[in-house]
Design brief:
Strand content: under 5%
Structural class: mainly alpha
Number of strands: 0
CATH architecture of the largest domain: Orthogonal Bundle
Number of domains: 2
Distance between the termini: 81 Å
Largest sheet: none
Helix content: 55-70%
CATH topology of the largest domain: Lysozyme
Pfam families: SLT_2
Protein name: Lytic transglycosylase domain-containing protein
Number of helices: 11
Keywords: Membrane, Transmembrane, Transmembrane helix
Length: about 230
């Protein structure tokens, strides 16, 4: 049987093809424009903004030898707002004292305790009958953490979270206590070096704290804005 010849398919004329292309071009442009603005709108959504803030935070932290733990910054900032001490100074103390609480023990050989390394007599108050010398004293845990006892003996310990206990091993209480101490020793009036020296009578210590303070303070507002935004 002879093969049937295939019928030639009709082809679009050049003019029709040009017409279709002319129609498709504005459609394609419209789709691209819509996609562009849709993407820009998506970028304003919270998740994209938070990702951008996270990237900004990571870039800033690259300037430090140790990252400032993100979860501590809102506590430093809250203490700054209450006591007027730069939050970056509190971060610097925390870095020098216990490497942001990463040390294996939060008790020093001299007897300083907690996240910000308070001597018991400084925390509970030097009016305590056992306080002398470096300030280790003979202070029970109950006395050390009792806000009423602290008030009685003129200590710097603070119950920051309102749980009825001023605990140097509680991060909020420790940071607020440090802010309280630095504030009452000149930091709130701009006498930063004096306040730091009072915290620890060592020029080497003062220089270390001020080194980190100046480093962190270059990013005071940026870090504060980034972390507080991410908490929303």
């Amino acid at each position: 049987m002879a093969n049937k010849k295939k019928k030639n398919q009709p082809k679009l004329s050049p003019s029709v093809q040009l017409g279709m292309i002319a129609l498709l071009i504005p459609i394609a442009i419209t789709v691209c424009v819509f996609a562009f603005f849709a993407w820009k709108e998506l970028q304003t959504l919270t998740i994209f903004e938070k990702l951008a803030k996270q990237k900004e935070l990571e870039e800033i932290q690259q300037n430090f030898d140790m990252n400032i733990p993100e979860q501590y910054i809102p506590i430093y900032v809250a203490a700054e707002e209450k006591y007027g001490v730069p939050w970056t100074l509190l971060a610097a103390h925390h870095r020098v004292e216990t490497r942001f609480s990463s040390m294996s023990s939060l008790v020093s050989p001299a007897g300083a305790e907690g996240h910000l390394q308070f001597m018991p007599c400084t925390f509970v108050g030097w009016k305590h009958s056992s306080c002398s010398g470096l300030g280790k004293g003979d202070i029970s845990k109950t006395e050390l953490m009792n806000p009423e006892i602290i008030q009685k003996y003129g200590g710097y310990g603070v119950d920051a979270n309102g749980d009825g206990i001023a605990d140097p091993y509680d991060i909020e209480d420790a940071i607020f206590s440090a802010a309280n101490y630095l504030s009452k020793n000149g930091a709130v009036d701009g006498h930063i070096r004096q306040a730091v020296y009072t915290y620890n009578h060592s020029d080497e210590y003062v220089n270390k704290v001020l080194h980190y303070f100046n480093l962190y303070n270059d990013y005071h507002d940026e870090l504060k804005e980034v972390v507080l935004y991410k908490e929303k």
